[in-house]
Amino acid sequence: MFNKKELKDILLKKIIFPDFSNKITRLVIGVGITIILAPMPLKVVFYNWLINTFNLNSGELLKLSDFQSGSADYIWGFSLITVALLHNVVYKIYCYKIDKPKREKQNEVDQKLFSKFITMLPANSSSIDLLQSHDFGNSFYGDIIKNLEDVIIVFDNVEHKFLDEELETAKNSFIQKLKDFSNKIGIYTGVAGGNVKFLSCIPDRYKGEYHLPEYIIKQIKELNSTSSSCYYLYEKFVNQARNKLNV
User: Fold this and answer.
1) Are 73 and 33 in contact (CB under 8 A)?
2) Which residues span the membrane (predicted)?
């Protein structure tokens, strides 16, 4: 039996918005539309073929006059379209059930991978707080960046790809933006006040000055913007993973 989520997917994606991906569905719907819209001579040719085929296979006797009433075109046309849509629904449900074990296995793999990701980079970590709210006009603890770099090293490789394509795309967008942020940190920051544990965008010689050089202001703005983008992509990926993986 289907659970509520599966039933919702089938109703929305397979019945209300069918994709007509199989050839039989497209063919039969095309014939139905042709019957409704085609001029009469073409319909007569088709009806003759349909009658001969039916009589040959069933032993019953149909006549051309059975198809030539004013409403017959629409009845046969819409009947074929209805049959095609029903076929599409049955076909999609069959494929959905056949693929279910594969999807469950993929979900299991992705759940373990997401668990590893969220363990390394939980939402309440100092690293995420840095991305979300830190103003890089101020100094910050350098080990926080090391944690972000560890996440890049672990998840920017083929062994840590999500099998779900949408999740992998979301994760990769975050990792690539995080790499950009890490590169900017390496270029724009240095040790703050001789304390190797802290980093700052502002060189010691400019500490306490009200008017900073334009290039430093630009670098601070870039880091603030990039870190905010990282947080947005992190939040998007985590929410998407929780919805897809039910975790």
Assistant:
1) no
2) 27-50, 74-94
- Residues 221-238 pLDDT 10s: 999 999 999 999 999 999
Q: Which two tokens stand for residue 124?
A: 């309440």
* Cβ atoms < 10 Å from Cβ of 98: 9
To which H or E segment does residue 191 belong?
strand 190-192
CA dist 38 and 164 (Å) reads 44
Helices (H), the chain: 4-9, 23-37, 40-58, 72-120, 126-133, 142-155, 165-188, 214-245
The answer to whether the CB of 230 falls within 8 A of the CB of 178 is yes
Residues written for the chain: 247
Residue 90 tokens read as 């049955």
pLDDT tier for residue 198 given thresholds of 50, 70 and 90 = very high
What are the structure tokens assigned to 2, written together?
A: 């289907």
Predicted model pTM: 0.63
